[in-house]
């Protein structure tokens, strides 16, 4: 069995609005769950439900517009028209935080379209691995960490391999980690740059 750990992003942010009681108030998603706009004196921790008592500017106004075709028409030489759009899961996941379970939608859709049915998709702290399904013959980590997280090595089967970028936040070395006799054997390969692995046994943010 193979465990493939994708990047998990964490986001800390500062609110410096003049409306805040304390302009230096630091709000973290891990501790506070974030704040929803608007943040005012009356709602210093954010507005839990927007438009709960009605719309501020009245009902929405719909305007009929005339269809205008694009100047770039498809033809035999250029048979495709490419658009910059979002996939479904990006509309209600949070493209910066990636902290809700529906980040799995796109991965599941792609796997299903390709005909794979023996893949499980899970959203969790990547540095903790997946102990309930261990041991794993292969572990692929596609985010860079300062060192190999101990839980991942513990979940690697005897004789198994793990591939992980290890190093600084902005530059790493791709390493192949083997478990032989319960010991860790590491073989460095090419230099690389991956996004940071965030979690208990990696970077804080």
Q: How does this structure look, described?
A:
The structure is a single chain. This protein is mainly β and 205 residues long. The longest helix is centred in the middle third of the chain and has 10 residues, at 104-113. A hairpin with a 4-residue loop joins strand 5 and strand 6 (172-180). It has a five-stranded mixed sheet. It has a two-stranded antiparallel sheet with strand order 2-3. The chain is 9% helix and 23% strand. It has a domain at 2-10 and 88-192: 3-Layer(aba) Sandwich (Rossmann fold).
Strand order of the largest sheet: 1-4-5-6-7
Q: What's the CATH architecture of the domain at 2-10 and 88-192? A: 3-Layer(aba) Sandwich
CATH class annotation of the domain at 2-10 and 88-192: Alpha Beta
Q: Report the β-strand fraction as a percent range.
A: 15-25%
Number of strands: 7
Unreliable stretches (pLDDT < 50, length at least 5) are 6-23
Shape: extended
Helix content: under 10%
Total DSSP helices:
3
**What structural class do the secondary elements suggest?**
mainly beta
CATH topology description of the domain at 2-10 and 88-192: Rossmann fold
Largest sheet entry: 5 strands, mixed
Q: End-to-end distance, in Å?
A: 29 Å
- The chain-level mean pLDDT equals 77
Furnish the topology, listing elements before pairings.
Blueprint: E1 2-5, E2 12-14, E3 26-28, H1 29-32, H2 104-113, E4 136-141, H3 150-154, E5 156-167, E6 172-180, E7 183-192
Parallel strand pairs: 1-4, 4-5
Antiparallel strand pairs: 2-3, 5-6, 6-7
Give a short synopsis of this structure.
The protein is mostly beta strands and 205 residues long. It has helices at 29-32, 104-113, 150-154, and strands spanning 2-5, 12-14, 26-28, 136-141, 156-167, 172-180, 183-192.
């Amino acid at each position: 069995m193979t465990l493939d750990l994708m990047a998990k992003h964490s986001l800390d942010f500062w609110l410096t609005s003049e409306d805040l009681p304390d302009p230096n108030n630091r709000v973290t998603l891990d501790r506070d769950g974030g704040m929803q706009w608007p943040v005012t004196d009356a709602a210093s921790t954010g507005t839990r439900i927007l438009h709960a008592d009605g719309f501020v500017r009245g009902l929405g106004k719909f305007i009929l517009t005339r269809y205008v075709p694009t100047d770039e028409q498809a033809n035999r030489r250029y048979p495709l028209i490419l658009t910059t759009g979002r996939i479904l899961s990006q509309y209600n996941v949070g493209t910066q935080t990636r902290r809700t379970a529906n980040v799995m939608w796109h991965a599941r859709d792609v796997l299903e379209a390709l005909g794979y049915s023996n893949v499980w998709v899970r959203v969790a702290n990547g540095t903790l691995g997946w102990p309930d399904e261990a041991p794993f013959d292969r572990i692929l980590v596609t985010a860079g960490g300062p060192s190999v997280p101990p839980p991942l090595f513990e979940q690697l089967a005897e004789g198994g391999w793990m591939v992980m970028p290890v190093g600084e936040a902005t530059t790493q070395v791709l390493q192949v980690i083997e478990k032989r006799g319960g010991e860790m054997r590491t073989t460095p390969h090419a230099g690389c740059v991956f996004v940071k692995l965030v979690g208990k046994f990696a970077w804080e943010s």
